[in-house]
Amino acid sequence: MKKLLSIMSFYFLALCLQSFAICPSVDAQQYTIIDLGTLSGGYFAQAAKINESGRIAGTSERNDSSPEIHAFLWTKQDGMMDLGSLSGVSTIATSINNRKQVVGYEYYENAEPLVHAFLWSKKTGMLDLGTLGGIYSQARGINGRGQIVGSSTNHEGDWRAFLWDEKDGMQDIGTLGGDTFAWGINDPGQIVGCSSVPGNYAYHAFIWTKQKGMQDLGTLGGTFAIPHSINNSGHFVGISENSSGQWHAFLWTEENAMQDLGTLGEPISDAYAINESDQVVGGSYYSVPEEGRAFLWDEINGMQDLNDLIPGNSGWVLLWASGINNAGEIVGVGHLNGSDNRAFLLMPAQ
After folding, report:
1. Assigned CATH class of 2-348
2. Can you tell me the distance from the alpha carbon of 202 to that of 180, in angstroms, rounded to the nearest whole number?
3. pTM of the predicted model, to two decimals?
4. How many CA atoms lie within 13 Å of 88's alpha carbon, on the beta-carbon side?
5. pLDDT tens-digit profile of 283-334?
6. What is the DSSP-derived secondary structure letter of residue 323?
7. Which of 26, 67, 130, 349 has the highest Cβ tally under 10 A?
């Protein structure tokens, strides 16, 4: 039980603080790389997701005032824009849709740490999405219709996955038996996440639909599976323990169920995003993503180290990739000339 809770705590918190014309083959594909910069002279920035028009949501340190961390929206035209906060506290961006709406959460330390999910748009600014009755909520994904998923504590202090929309607000979508977390939603409204199941203290992947509710999709054979992203075909990716006790990235499809994507040689890999061509991005690492290498996976080429697909004299070490869009543009986190974590954009070479 303690091992499982530590696993969940590690991935939940790591992803909080971190915690993107497709060619049929990327054999010869190379990328140009862009440093997204930081807010107000800060030292680090982390990209979360990229939409189809190339707009990027993420989080950056600021050096000019407190709090030091704010969510950002980056565009090729205007660079990095500070999205601010609700209460003068730190904010973390986790996802963006094609309507330029950004979701995430704000947090601060007071008598108790409070965390609330937010929705940002240019029209309304930052909106507090509230909770399911507890004091914590975090938004993780948003689709093209503005539906948002994430997790919140309820009146009893239990974690529950939620679906939020403008009409009905925040709704509990159920559980497989215990604490439940939602991570991604596609345009048809399918939701993926993980939930504890009774009996063996395991966390299983689930897919939820309005018609069928929550379906248990199991694991790679181990004790947990955590999905992170789902495309409009209902294919989703994440991390799971396999039957050998290894933590590996996976791809789930209805045809093949849960497929182990392997690693780049390190013991751990995690898949963070998938596009409509089933290109998958993530990181392969030893114990924490900051020790890793960003990867791109597809069915033809398998898992490729993105560091091998950028100019050798770029000065970059790509640690993990967190988003990919249908144009093949990828965002993630790396080190530039030995810097702190910096957000990058990879653009396929013409």
Report:
1. mainly beta
2. 11
3. 0.90
4. 3
5. 999 988 888 999 999 999 999 999 999 998 999 999 999 999 999 999 999 9
6. E
7. 26
